[in-house]
Design goal:
single chain; five-stranded mixed beta sheet; Cytidine Deaminase, domain 2; DNA polymerase, domain 1; 40% helix; 5 strands; 15% strand; alpha+beta
């Protein structure tokens, strides 16, 4: 039986059936069926974003975001403003991306939990490398140790180019004196990726080691962390072993 429309009008067109989506078009179902390792970077990022902008589905936004930043490593180094420059990335998506990347860094890090004995500069490198490897500027931190070289905590002292004037002994030793730390490890990163210490690194280390001797807080080491490894100024002989208590 044919249904007619109003007088003089043509029958309403029947909409064409929508093409059936395959499993490849549904990353959530693929995740459940095959596990997260089966998904591409763009698919995983699309799941995180959940939605895109008008006319831009999450998969397209995710692909554009990865292309803009050169992949996951570039995305990990991007700041909030850079992430927000991509159309379809709002405050909620930006926060989700940054939180997810930070969780990944924490999982990758072999954390020096409070009370853990510090065995050497390799422990320092493994602890700080995930958080410092992509930093776009230098960060200077101190790792506080008790009398048995067990980790207490770490504190950020300064950000910027490492100079003797920027890293002042007052700022470096304040947390150690406040919390009665017996020793400290100096830590900073090289955004260039090369951990080779500079003359400025040596100058700052010598200055702080002398200040620590006067204050009764031993500077155990100064570890430079970079993408391509680390350098220990004590292992290089830039800290006098006679300073050890």
């Amino acid at each position: 039986m044919r249904v007619r429309g109003a007088a003089g009008s043509q029958p309403a067109p029947v909409p064409a059936p929508r093409p059936r989506e395959g499993l490849a078009d549904r990353p959530r179902e693929r995740l459940e069926a095959k596990g997260p390792e089966a998904l591409s970077d763009a698919e995983l990022l699309a799941l995180l974003l959940r939605s895109g902008g008008p006319g831009r589905p999450a998969a397209r936004v995710a692909a554009a975001l990865l292309e803009r930043h050169g992949g996951l490593l570039g995305l990990a180094a991007a700041g909030a403003r850079e992430l927000g420059a991509e159309p379809g990335i709002g405050p909620a998506q930006r926060a989700a991306i940054r939180a997810c990347l930070e969780l990944g860094r924490r999982v990758a890090a072999r954390r020096l939990a409070p009370g853990t004995p510090l065995r050497g500069p390799a422990d320092v490198y493994r602890h700080f490398h995930p958080s410092l490897r992509h930093a776009s500027h230098e960060r200077f931190l101190v790792l506080l140790l008790d009398g048995r070289h067990r980790v207490m905590r770490h504190e950020l002292v300064s950000q910027g180019t490492l100079t003797a004037s920027l890293v002042h002994p007052r700022e470096v030793f304040r947390p150690a004196l406040r919390e009665a730390a017996a020793a400290i490890v100096l830590v900073h990163n090289h955004p260039s990726g090369d951990p080779t210490p500079s003359p400025e690194d040596r100058e700052v280390t010598t200055r702080l080691a002398r200040a620590g001797e006067l204050l009764g807080v031993w500077v155990v080491d100064h570890v430079v962390v970079a993408e391509r490894g680390y350098a220990s100024l004590r292992e290089l002989g830039w800290l006098d072993p006679r300073e050890a208590p």
